[in-house]
Amino acid sequence: MAVTLTTPNTLLGVFQPKGNVAKLATNLATVVLGTLLITAAAKVNVPVWPVPVTLQSFAIAALAAAFGMRIATATVALYLLEGAMGLPVFATGGGMAYLVGPTGGFLIGFLAMAAIIGAAVDRGASSRPAVLFASMLVGGSVMFAFGFAWLVAMAGQAQWVDQANVVGSAFAKAVQPFIVWDILKMAFATLTVTGAWKLFGAKR
Predict the structure, then answer these.
(1) Residues in the chain with pLDDT < 70?
(2) What DSSP designation does 165 have?
(3) Rounded to an integer, what distance in angstroms lies between the CA atom of residue 191 and that of residue 204?
């Protein structure tokens, strides 16, 4: 049974060692290091309420594009577990209370985002910038859908929500301000990974 969690269509797949033990060690190390990258990206933030502006979506998109679906989803799942256990890996802390707070839907949405982008990469999107960028936009849209639905569901009597227009208020405060920035982050992640693929992927 193969122990690798990536495919030859990913950057990680290009550099996979030959032996099964070495492959497994590489995969596990990649997942752990990936959570550190996402944590670092979360700390680069503008603390606006209720959802801070961070580089998490860029980091997750780049990881998924470089490593594929299984590594990416495993990395995000471990990251969320670390946060649920109380480690301060999120933008402003950690713990279950944080995970079920206003940003909880976006955090869970990162799993779907990683899976969508990673699946496209496993099928060869690394060498096709337009396809990779489109997959990132789809993944980002799904992530926003999770976050928006969560905010609407928990709005209740939250002071930051106009109770006369919950849907519109939640969209205006927690989705609309981030759309342009996330498109730019997805474009940069696409250029980064496809550029790296041109340098290294062709040398397989």
Answers:
(1) 1-4, 47-51, 156-163, 201-204
(2) S
(3) 20
| pLDDT tens per residue, range 50-65 | 667 789 999 999 999 9
pLDDT in tens, 157-188: 566 666 677 788 778 877 888 888 899 999 99
What dihedral angle (degrees, nearest 10) is formed by the CA atoms of 189, 190, 191, 193? 80
Q: CB neighbours of 105 closer than 8 A, spacing ≥ 6?
A: 146, 147, 148, 149, 150, 151
Q: Please give the structure tokens belonging to residue 9.
A: 């269509």
The two three-digit tokens of residue 37, written as one number: 């990258």
Given a contact cutoff of 8 angstroms between Cβ atoms, the answer to whether 62 and 113 are in contact is no
State the Cα angle at 43 between 42 and 49, rounded to 5°.
80
